[in-house]
Amino acid sequence: MAFEKMIKNAFNQSRDNCRYGDTLEEIAEIQDYIKNAKRICIPNKTGIKVKVLNEVLKEYGLPQAEILQVDTNTADTSRIPALAKAYIALDQCECDLIIARGRLGIPGSGSLLVFIDNKGRILTAGMSPSHIIHQKSIEETVYKEAVEALEKIGFKKEG
């Protein structure tokens, strides 16, 4: 089943009140979309997150990402800053996949790392508690969130 057809089919099932949960075919479509992404962008100012995310992507046999140097400070004024960062990137570049990370919600709510497609639809995500709670480095936290996001949709590390 093709990616867009799968999404339309699930929509129709929901509309017709006959959707009974995710299927292995749907998960496989999401995996294929990520595996076949030609251009993956990560909105970030410093590149620290990009380095860590590329390490994770490599461990899972996935294409490497590039930095999209864009100021995402205004995203922190939104209700879901991580998603706002992803949408800022979506508006600034042509790409197949965006991986964005930021605050989950209000200050103190923790962090969200989100994978979105080229139409702004969430494919998967990983989350962490507030830094003040977990006390881990940004590198360790981004790594954990990315692994959670990928394993949530059935990816396994290579080797």
Structural commentary:
By secondary structure, the chain is an alpha/beta fold. Helices cover 43% and strands 18% of the residues. It has 6 helices and 5 strands, in the order H-H-E-H-E-H-E-E-E-H-H. Strands 2-1-3-4-5 form a 5-stranded mixed β-sheet, sandwiched between helices. It is globular. The two termini are 28 Å apart. 36% of the residues are buried. The model has no long low-confidence stretch (mean pLDDT 96).
Secondary-structure map with pairings?
Layout: H1 3-15, H2 24-35, E1 40-43, H3 48-59, E2 66-68, H4 81-92, E3 97-103, E4 111-117, E5 122-128, H5 131-134, H6 138-152
Parallel strand pairs: 1-2, 1-3
Antiparallel strand pairs: 3-4, 4-5
Short description:
By secondary structure, the chain is an alpha/beta fold.
Helices, by number, come to 6
Percentage beta strand: 15-25%
General shape:
globular
Spans where pLDDT lies below 50 across 5 or more residues: none
Mean pLDDT, to the nearest integer, reads 96
Biggest beta sheet summary? 5 strands, mixed
Main β-sheet, spatial strand arrangement? 2-1-3-4-5
Radius of gyration, in angstroms, nearest whole number: 16 Å
Task: Classify the secondary structure makeup into a structural class.
Answer: alpha/beta
How far is the N terminus from the C terminus? 28 Å
Order of helices and strands: HHEHEHEEEHH
> Count the strands?
5
Kindly state the percentage of residues in helix.
Answer: 40-55%
List keywords for this structure.
single chain; 159 residues; alpha/beta; five-stranded mixed sheet; 6 helices; globular
